DNA sequence: GATGCACCTGTCGAACTCGACATGTCAATA
DNA sequence: TATTGACATGTCGAGTTCGACAGGTGCATC
């Protein structure tokens, strides 16, 4: 399962509590790569601990438990990331919505595409700003996947932006032609 | 559920059988947007028919049934695509693997990143070739989402390609610095 | 001292997914 | 005519996900 590997990866970068892991999934990780709520995370942590892939290395206030990966857990993670795989799981509601546009009337599709262009531009500049504020010396991934993720997200939004503009151009040309 | 809307979208472009829908999900749609196997599709078609969002408009050889969207189904689809939504479902094993790279040793990460660069370049040119072969006159989506999807995929791969190269640069610079 | 809020962990049930299994058809090729 | 393979639809059970519900803590502010 991918969730277990996502948790191992997060913990390999830095030991965290279930609560902190939940926040990481709510941020960039959950935005581009893999979503999970705390209701999936806590039971999965328990399973990983049972398997010996993680251990509790600190107990803090309010019953919080900080988990770290064990050597076995790290080996499992490394193996999973390094092994090339056939097609993995894909599920993206945003992208699905983009594909479904071609099923609508061009006028409707244009409304949505213009919204996408606007939104992608906003998010792109937001992420670019984050990248600019990060001192170049920060090693990738030191604090979660912030740095790599921000750049990935920025490029992703730029690609979507370009695609939506291209699609608008195609639709407008098709409309002008049929008129 | 998104699966039902994906089916409505596919059928709105063109009536199809469950078998043909399954093939569409195995192609570009399932690659970038939403995966589904026939074991999800057939029961969902039955549910959509029950709700009156699709109907069987043709019965062919080998027990095949061709479904079409009803006006109610189309209205439901339109509403779903046009309504702006908070964050939708995201799940992408490939991207997750990219994020997890920063949890590995730089040497391991570089191996994977170089593989990504190569793969993204291949897929990008493959899709670009498809785009070039498509006569410009074909209206978007006439045969599934081929045209829009190919362009989207091509831009996606180009973005991943650029990102991976950037990441390699960062990692190599960091290694050189620490050496 | 009460109130609110972010912190922190958990269960349960309904819905959804997915691989394995099952069944039969039509056409081409050996 | 036997075999192969794409066509075509379906069920079942195990595993996964996710929203709703639940409950306790430490701190700051009123």
TrEMBL record, chains A, B:
<dbReference type="InterPro" id="IPR036388">
    <property type="entry name" value="WH-like_DNA-bd_sf"/>
</dbReference>
<dbReference type="InterPro" id="IPR018309">
    <property type="entry name" value="Tscrpt_reg_PadR_C"/>
</dbReference>
<dbReference type="InterPro" id="IPR036390">
    <property type="entry name" value="WH_DNA-bd_sf"/>
</dbReference>
<protein>
    <submittedName>
        <fullName>Helix-turn-helix transcriptional regulator</fullName>
    </submittedName>
</protein>
<dbReference type="Pfam" id="PF03551">
    <property type="entry name" value="PadR"/>
</dbReference>
<dbReference type="InterPro" id="IPR005149">
    <property type="entry name" value="Tscrpt_reg_PadR_N"/>
</dbReference>
<feature type="domain" description="Transcription regulator PadR C-terminal">
    <location>
        <begin position="90"/>
        <end position="172"/>
    </location>
</feature>
<feature type="domain" description="Transcription regulator PadR N-terminal">
    <location>
        <begin position="7"/>
        <end position="79"/>
    </location>
</feature>
<dbReference type="Pfam" id="PF10400">
    <property type="entry name" value="Vir_act_alpha_C"/>
</dbReference>
